[in-house]
Amino acid sequence: MMEEPLFSVAVPATTANFGPGYDSVGMALSLYMTVDVRESVEWNVHYDGEEYADLPTDDTNLIIRTIQDVAGRYGKEIQPHALHITSDIPLGKGLGSSATAIAAGIEIANELLGLSLTPQEKVQIGSENEGHADNVVAALLGGVTVAYFVADELEVVQLPQPAIGVVILVPPNVLKTTESRGLLPRELPHSVASAGNAASNVMLTAIALGDWKLAGKMMEKDVFHEQYRKPLLNDFDHIRTACHEMGAYGMTISGAGPSIFVAVKEGTQEEIAKRLETEFPHYKTIAIAPSPIGSTIKKKPASQ
Q1: Alpha helices of the chain — where are they, by DSSP H?
Q2: Which of 79, 149, 256, 284 is found 20 to 30 A from 24 (Cα to Cα)?
């Protein structure tokens, strides 16, 4: 029988951008990756599930690289450990799987080294490792987060827990963020960017006030990335029309894609997920809720 872990880390999936909130808005979702940490003579990683079979299991793994990065930042040596990972977060589908790995690495290093990092220190390290802040901040803090991350200056606002249901449409194909970013233009006309900025401002104010009808409307007025990425997403415009007919608040690309995020009235997500999966069988649907909490540590109970 496998020995009890020293501790476990749970990190939520995330959806980012919310349309015009490009590279700044994220929301934690109630899908989780859990990492059990045990003592070992060398670094090794074991994933449950075939979906993760191609990920590295040695010290090139992103979680271990992050642990070692954090140790290096604080001039510490860290002993190898074994990591056992279970996850219900689809990999490479625009649900923050790399951000969850980075968040887990930060939490593990903080725990093993007794660094007592503040939430601000964690999100700073996470954003620098990820290269943008939206997913990793939401993974660490939970709820809806808004981040300004420019030239390593990071400011973060956490909004109240959103009272909505969520449907995620997950296609069979994987899309790398780097590939998806390559579709975007280098520049936008000033007037277009200004309109996108206004949509984002109204969307975030509406979210803060709990007006999801207005937030969903603004979510669909993105000019920064949707039109360039949606050709890769099957039936995108038809799904949007169907979502409107089903009474959803709004629908947009989750992160860099290829999954689709739908905000719906709380309690209707199961029914809408079933209807969307019937109508668009290319996608698997997941009915979930926002996660009010970010990454958490569960310690082994002290022996009696």
Answers
A1: 62-73, 97-113, 119-130, 134-141, 177-181, 190-209, 212-219, 226-229, 236-245, 269-279
A2: 284
* Structural domains in the chain plus CATH codes: 7-159+291-298 (3.30.230.10), 164-288 (3.30.70.890)
Residue with tokens 């059990």: 36
Q: Render pLDDT for 136-186 as a digit per residue (tens, 0 to 9).
A: 999 999 999 999 999 989 999 999 899 999 999 999 998 777 787 889 999
CA 54 to chain centre: 20
Q: Is 296 exposed, middle or buried (0-12, 13-18, 19+ CB in 10 A)?
A: middle
3-state SS class at 225: coil
pTM of the entire predicted model: 0.95
Q: Distance between alpha carbon 246 and the CA centroid of its chain, in Å?
A: 26
